[in-house]
Amino acid sequence: MGTSSLTHRAKLRNATHSQPARGSRDLIRRLRSADAETILSLFTDRQYVKPRESVAELLAHADIALGICPVVGKRAVQWLDLDPSAAIGRLRRTELTQLARCLHRFLRHTAPIGGSCST
After folding, report:
1. Residue 100 domain boundaries
2. Domain for residue 81, yes or no?
3. Is position 2 within any domain?
4. What is the pLDDT of residues 55-80, one digit of tens each?
5. Around 62, how many Cα atoms within 13 Å sit in the side-chain half-sphere?
6. How far apart are alpha carbons 117 and 119 in whole angstroms?
7. What are phi and psi of 117, to 5 degrees?
8. CA separation, residue 8 to residues 3, 17, 61, 79 (Å)
9. Which in 33, 49, 52, 68 has the greatest CB count within 10 A?
10. pLDDT digits (tens, 9 = 90+) for 8-36
11. CA angle (114 as vertex; 108, 118 as ends), nearest 5
């Protein structure tokens, strides 16, 4: 084997394993890690462990744990007409499920502007 075939293989390997753009990597990570069931599981755990925590604090924790954009969280709360200062322990299971599904839907349909979530 000559050196030309080795360099050709290296070029092919680099071309097939190249990194995607930063914005698309963030989008792929968000979509992979934050499906509706994962979000609901996080919300249910937080409701059990910290029932006095507000909806706004829950969404801030979801941002840290799952990378959910705070803007998307605010949109979901407004769309569902939830009180951001309400304690999550007072929410019904159906309300948590609606919030999780709404967040997931908004995450799927909202592409990051400039590769990151803007607040």
Report:
1. 22-109
2. yes
3. no
4. 999 999 999 988 888 899 999 999 99
5. 36
6. 7
7. -80, 125
8. 9, 14, 47, 54
9. 68
10. 555 545 544 445 555 566 655 555 556 88
11. 75
Query: What are the tokens at 85?
Result: 């200062």
pTM score, whole prediction: 0.67
42 in Cβ contact with 107 (< 8 Å):
no
81: left (phi > 0), else alpha (psi -120 to 50), else beta? Answer: left
Instruction: Indicate whether 49 belongs to any domain.
Output: yes
What type of residue sits at position 38?
T
Domain count, the chain: 1
Residue 115 lies in a domain: no
Residue 18: what residue type? S
Rg (CA), the chain: 20
Tokens representing residue 79 in the block: 């769309």
**Token pair recorded at residue 103:** 């967040």
